[in-house]
Write a structure and sequence with these properties.
Layout (H helix, E strand, L loop, with lengths): L5 H12 L5 H8 L3 H13 L19 E9 L4 H12 L4 E6 L6 E7 L2 H13 L4 E8 L14
Antiparallel strand pairs: 1-3, 1-4, 2-3
Helix pairs in contact: 1-2, 2-3
Protein name: Lrp/AsnC family transcriptional regulator
Keywords: DNA-binding, Transcription, Transcription regulation
GO molecular function: sequence-specific DNA binding
């Protein structure tokens, strides 16, 4: 784990709100010089603290308005079977997140697709055709009241 000082935290808080800030805008907001900000951000990227710099899209605006939360239970839970399942879902763009969980199911997936027909096709491809998938339990979002990507740095 990387040790973060107060300036690092201020930089990270600002970048979590708006990663499109120019270096000068960022420096002004965190009360540091532009060269200092540039060095700090580069260090945070190199250390892996900043894992990705992305644009977060509105799913309903790009034809991916159905969110499915899916619990998966495998027949065989040995590490190699879990890794094989993770590799399978990693190839699927619609699978936004994959978590190994305990207790309960083996995995929880967050899936974003256009509609139920698209979900059905994905479920058939990823789950029904896999001999090691024992149980699939799907929940469909009818309303998203909160969605955040920012982490607390306190």
């Amino acid at each position: 784990m990387t040790t973060l000082d107060e300036l690092d935290k201020r930089i990270l808080q600002q970048l979590q709100v708006n990663n499109a800030l120019s270096n000068q805008e960022l420096a002004n907001l965190v009360h540091a010089s532009a060269p200092t900000c540039l060095r700090r951000v580069a260090r945070l990227v190199k250390a892996g603290v900043i894992a990705k710099q992305v644009a977060i899209l509105a799913p309903e605006q790009v034809g991916a308005g159905l969110t499915a939360i899916v619990e998966i239970t495998l027949d065989h839970q040995a590490t190699e079977h879990q890794i094989a399942f993770e590799q399978l879902v990693a190839k699927e763009v619609a699978v936004q997140q994959c978590y190994r969980v305990s207790p309960g199911p083996d995995f929880v997936l967050m899936i974003q697709v256009a509609d139920m027909a698209a979900y059905h096709a994905l479920a058939h491809r990823l789950f029904a055709n896999q001999a090691n998938v024992r149980n699939v339990r799907s929940f469909f979002s009818i309303h998203r009241s909160k969605f955040e990507t920012a982490l607390s740095l306190s």
